[in-house]
Specification:
Number of strands: 2
Mean pLDDT: 94
Largest sheet: 2 strands, antiparallel
Order of helices and strands: HHHHEEHHHHHHHHHHHH
Strand content: under 5%
Helix content: over 70%
Strand order of the largest sheet: 1-2
Number of domains: 1
CATH superfamily: Farnesyl Diphosphate Synthase
Low-confidence stretches: none
CATH topology: Farnesyl Diphosphate Synthase
Distance between the termini: 28 Å
């Protein structure tokens, strides 16, 4: 019997093979060279893996799952390109971001192109119903709303924990929720079943983002494969920053204002660790992972064992 780890590796390999086979035009090079560069970068492929596992549990044909997961990953890439521009990040998945390697105009156009390709790929599924397209596009708009809130929240120290959770549910949770729900929408499952899968994915998304915020401070630059500490420099309101500002406002303000840029990440990491805020946030993301499992337990006549193992794997990730 195939082990869970080997199953994940197998899904990821087949997905990467399919991603490389996407036909990308040669000209104009201004558009297609950076698109090719973006989609050939290495990634965890967590969203495609989740979609495949949900589809396996619900007997969706593998070729349908592959096409759907390609569209989801390209949508994810589109959001990352524009997110990197707005946050002025210079590394993504261990490589230079597109605006860093080329320029802003190239990156904006490449993101638009990748999003369009995601729509074209999704349309290749035979007998695709309009509700799948509608859900896909509503998800895209919700992600944009989340990104807008993230920008609005910068340097705003009145943002509450509830406001932060609402923001990350849109920015991160919406796409992970869609990765879980789309196979069920394709199968014409009842609305209440689709919502259970969507909420399962959204809980994972909220946990994933809080976890990512922690790794942004404590993670290894090489393992993470992206710029670390950029959120702090931009005044992003992460769960940790909100808790620090609420509990220790004067100390937090002094730390941010008086730390040299090169020492800021280390100083903040030490402060958050010493005050127990990192541990408190770890408990919060673990609670969201636990909540995701509670949604799975509502499902009947479905083998959820692989999805449970995925949640457990994600909870233990270090990059």
């Amino acid at each position: 019997m195939q082990s869970f780890n080997s199953l994940i590796l197998d899904i990821r390999k087949h997905f990467n093979d399919s991603l490389r086979k996407i036909q990308i035009n040669d000209k104009p090079k201004y558009l297609y060279d950076p698109i090719r560069y973006s989609i050939q970068t290495k990634g965890k492929r967590f969203r495609p893996v989740l979609l495949h596992l949900v589809g396996r549990a619900n007997n969706v044909q593998p070729d349908i799952l592959m096409t759907m997961s390609l569209a989801i990953e390209l949508l994810h890439n589109f959001t990352l390109i524009h997110d990197d521009i707005m946050d002025n990040d210079n590394m993504r998945r261990g490589k230079k971001t597109i605006h860093e390697k080329w320029d802003l105009s190239t990156a904006i156009l490449s993101g638009d192109g990748i999003y369009t390709i995601s729509q074209i790929i999704l349309s290749q599924i035979p007998n695709l119903k309009s509700n799948v397209f509608s859900y896909f596009n509503k998800t895209t708009l919700e992600i944009c709303e989340g990104q807008a809130l993230d920008k609005e929240f910068e340097n705003n120290y009145t943002i509450s924990e509830d406001m932060y959770i609402s923001m990350i549910e849109k920015k991160t949770g919406a796409l992970i929720g869609a990765s879980s729900a789309l196979p069920l929408i394709f199968k014409h499952k009842p609305h209440h079943i689709v919502k259970v899968y969507e909420k399962f994915g959204r809980c994972i998304g909220k946990a994933f983002q809080i976890q990512d915020d922690i790794l942004e401070i404590t993670g290894d630059y090489i393992k993470m494969g992206k710029s670390l500490g950029s959120d702090i420099l931009l005044g992003k309101q992460t769960m940790m920053a909100i808790k620090a500002n609420n509990k220790y406002p004067s100390e937090w303000e002094d730390l941010i204002s008086n730390s040299e840029k090169k020492n800021l990440t280390n100083n903040i990491s030490k402060f958050l660790n010493d005050k127990g805020i990192i541990e408190e946030c770890k408990l919060e993301y673990k609670a969201y992972f636990s909540a995701s499992l509670e949604y799975l337990n509502q499902l009947e006549d479905i083998d959820i064992s692989e999805l449970v193992q995925l949640v457990n794997m994600l909870e233990k990730r270090t990059f």
